[in-house]
């Protein structure tokens, strides 16, 4: 039996980062992770690096390159007969995943972190039992525990996955050929990103979204802009379409759904189910330890991610807040530093949210709808990329930057971007809001020309009706 200062259960972005930070602070650390990539190769990195954030972005990048070939004629570039090899695309994706997960393994070695391969369970406040692939159980003692089990896709009874015809996001990342007809249940982040990948390669994509509103969590001016652009791309997004049944027949999937016209049917070759994720907390800890979960399975924690058991912390997708890798990592760092006796703080109100479609969609802080509902007086400014020289040169001049500021104090309360490199541009506003900057602060900063960032500068100016490169209303 080995003794540790800290044992982390889960090797995803929350867990592996927590382990590294705890080791940096001089703790003896072990990380328990059971995942095997493609069921064969043990790997750190969790869903994000293996079957989530990283592989999806690789496929999005590759397919965007291929899709843009059709628009290069306007640049004077002529390409004929271009094709894409799906096997090569998937090999590249797997190679990048392997490099990054292997990099974490090297970081563990460099920081003298023990990687215990198996399924971890907290059996007592100071004991973690690990079951390996052969079913052998070994118990380890520790002073502190950080629970970082991540999340798993939600399975719905009306469309049971067979992982061949009806798949989750993992399956959609690994198609060996482009499905002629792809159905997608859920127009959320995963649904839109995976739809974009296969639509760019020629699949006829139909997205079924039960909500009457596209991206209800996004500022609705931005969401409506996104809807218009997706429609121009010929993505078939059916809002208010609730799937009632999906059956595999003759190597096809027959979908029955209900919309305002009543019951409808549609046949596809593959069906992707992505209606959300749930915390992976089943059989994670023994009962009676003082750790509580809410009715959705999320572990209850305080502002520093401490559970009801003083020496046990929980981070990432298994606790409150957005289910995002970067949020999990920051919570992992916080937990490790609390264990070290420090007093870190994380602002859950300023976790940026990003959708890596084309156009990209990124936001931080309050939406206009939230400000109205909360009765907060505000003013807003926006600026279109259509008036931005760099965006024009990039042939990416659709979308806008929108900034919401307090009507009295001018403090920035929310920022929303749809357009080129929104994922990178939003970071300036995250920093500004963390330091409680006013819109005028951004307006008075000299931004480089020509640059996409000038759209942020102009949106900040527009908050007070003084944008320079658009007509102020």
Walk me through what this model shows:
The protein has 473 residues and is of the alpha/beta class. The protein folds into three domains: 3-153 and 278-349, FAD/NAD(P)-binding domain; 157-275, 3-Layer(bba) Sandwich (FAD/NAD(P)-binding domain), CATH 3.50.50.60; 359-463, 2-Layer Sandwich (Enolase-like, domain 1), CATH 3.30.390.30. 30% of the residues lie in helices and 27% in strands. It has helices at 13-24, 46-51, 53-68, 86-110, 169-172, 189-200, 220-232, 325-339, 368-373, 389-393, 422-434, 439-443, 454-463; strands at 3-9, 29-33, 36-37, 41-42, 114-117, 119-124, 127-131, 137-147, 151-153, 166-167, 181-185, 204-209, 236-239, 242-249, 252-259, 262-268, 270-273, 277-279, 312-314, 353-355, 360-365, 378-384, 400-406, 412-419. Strands 1, 2, 5, 6, 7, 8 and 19 form a seven-stranded mixed sheet that branches. A five-stranded parallel sheet has the order 10-17-11-12-13.
């Amino acid at each position: 039996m080995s003794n540790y200062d800290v044992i982390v259960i889960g090797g995803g972005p929350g867990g592996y980062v927590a382990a590294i930070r705890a080791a940096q602070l001089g703790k003896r650390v072990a990380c328990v992770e059971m995942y095997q990539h493609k069921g064969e190769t043990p790997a750190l990195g969790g869903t994000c690096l293996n079957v989530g954030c990283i592989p999806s972005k690789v496929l999005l990048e590759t397919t965007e390159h291929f899709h843009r070939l059709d628009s290069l004629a306007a640049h004077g570039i002529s390409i004929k007969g271009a094709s894409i090899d799906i096997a090569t695309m998937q090999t590249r994706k797997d190679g990048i995943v392997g490099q990054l997960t292997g990099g974490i393994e090297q970081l563990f070695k460099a920081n003298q972190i023990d990687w215990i391969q198996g399924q971890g369970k907290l059996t007592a406040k100071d004991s973690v039992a690990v079951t390996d692939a052969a079913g052998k159980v070994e118990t380890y003692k520790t002073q502190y525990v950080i629970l970082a089990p991540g999340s798993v896709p939600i399975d719905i009874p009306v469309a049971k996955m067979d992982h061949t015809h009806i798949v989750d996001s993992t399956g959609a990342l690994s198609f060996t050929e482009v499905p002629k007809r792809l159905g997608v249940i859920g127009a959320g982040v995963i649904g839109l990103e995976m739809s974009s990948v296969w639509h760019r390669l020629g699949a006829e994509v139909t997205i079924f979204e039960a909500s009457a509103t596209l991206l209800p969590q996004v500022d609705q001016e931005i969401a409506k802009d996104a809807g218009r652009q997706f429609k121009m791309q010929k993505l078939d997004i059916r809002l208010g379409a609730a799937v009632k049944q999906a059956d595999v027949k003759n190597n096809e999937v027959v979908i029955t759904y209900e919309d305002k016209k009543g019951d409808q049917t549609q046949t596809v070759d593959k069906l992707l189910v992505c209606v959300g994720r749930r915390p992976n907390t089943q059989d994670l800890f023994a009962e009676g330890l003082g750790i509580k979960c809410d009715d959705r399975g999320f572990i209850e924690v305080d502002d520093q991610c401490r559970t009801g058991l003083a020496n046990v912390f929980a981070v990432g997708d298994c606790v409150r807040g957005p289910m995002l890798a970067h949020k999990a990592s920051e919570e992992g760092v916080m937990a490790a530093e609390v264990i070290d006796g420090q007093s870190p703080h994380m602002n859950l109100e300023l976790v940026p949210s990003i959708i890596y479609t084309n156009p990209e969609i990124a936001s931080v802080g309050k939406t206009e709808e939230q400000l109205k509902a909360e009765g907060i007086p505000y003013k807003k400014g926006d600026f279109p990329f259509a008036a931005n020289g760099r965006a024009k040169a990039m042939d990416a001049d659709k979308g806008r930057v929108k900034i919401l500021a307090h009507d009295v104090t001018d403090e920035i309360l929310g920022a929303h971007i749809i357009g080129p490199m929104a994922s990178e541009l939003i970071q300036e506003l995250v920093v500004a809001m963390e330091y409680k900057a006013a819109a005028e602060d951004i307006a008075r900063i000299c931004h480089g020309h020509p640059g996409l960032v000038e759209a942020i500068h102009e949106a900040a100016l527009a908050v007070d009706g003084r944008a320079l490169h658009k007509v102020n209303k």
